[in-house]
Write a structure and sequence with these properties.
Low-confidence stretches: none
Number of domains: 1
Order of helices and strands: HHHHEE
Distance between the termini: 57 Å
Shape: extended
Number of helices: 4
Number of strands: 2
Radius of gyration: 21 Å
Strand order of the largest sheet: 1-2
Structural class: mainly alpha
Length: about 130
């Protein structure tokens, strides 16, 4: 192993990950925006992806409670950690169920300015 590798790990250890976490929300929010605009995206799966943001918020709140109330990390307070992880489980379940129910090529009718929009090929959604 080259001597630069251990120095890299030492340098990375000092890097604060918080800005990277905040920056990672930008592409995720862009994905959510795009998924909401795509007519064929499964609505239940979209709700699951949105629920991931709820998981993040609950996890942050639980981590603060764990630190202030117990003086420990969230991972060391089983009740709070398990409760926060339940939101991740729920969001994953919604994503999976959304894609299980979805059929490729199926158009999801979303209301437009003049009511529901028909699929672009002119066929009703049930026949495409």
């Amino acid at each position: 192993m080259s001597p630069e590798i251990p120095r890299l790990f030492i340098w990375l250890e000092a890097v604060d990950p918080a800005p990277f976490f905040v920056l990672s929300l930008v592409p995720y929010l862009a994905f959510l925006y795009w998924a909401a605009k795509v007519r064929g995206f499964p609505r239940l799966a979209l709700q699951g992806f949105r629920m991931t943001l709820v998981f993040v918020a609950v996890t942050i709140a639980a981590a603060i409670v764990a630190q202030v109330r117990y003086g420990k990390l969230l991972a060391d307070v089983d009740g709070l950690h398990g409760g926060a992880e339940a939101f991740l489980t729920l969001s994953n379940l919604l994503v999976v169920l959304g894609f299980i129910q979805w059929r490729p090529g199926e158009q999801v009718l979303r209301p437009g300015p003049q009511g529901p929009c028909p699929p672009e090929d002119g066929m009703p959604a049930s026949e495409s």
